[in-house]
């Protein structure tokens, strides 16, 4: 099985929030529906976590820079390690580029109107307050 991108097709909605007009509403995991499909543009955006619009702009710019995207995807388990080894004590796993690969793969492959950056910002060590 191909595990380079971890659980790319298994979305974890346990920490999904809905930021609307500065108010955070926790969504119940039981009532969540699948993400909306891409529109006629066939492009996928990036969901705002409440203050990540500048980060999202940078990520979209990097995603649409073919040289950067190709270089990122050319890195394999030899250079980055794998998601499966991230909790092993002696494993050398470069989780930030792995999460960036995963996000870019979601933007390219999954039929959803927006992808989440929660796993990527978690890999930075950021909390929801940051």
TrEMBL record:
It comes from the Eukaryota. GO terms for biological process: protein deubiquitination. Residues 44-130 form the USP domain. One of its GO terms (cellular component) is nucleus. GO terms for molecular function: cysteine-type deubiquitinase activity. PROSITE patterns: USP_1, USP_3. This is Ubiquitin specific peptidase 40. It comes from Mustela putorius furo.
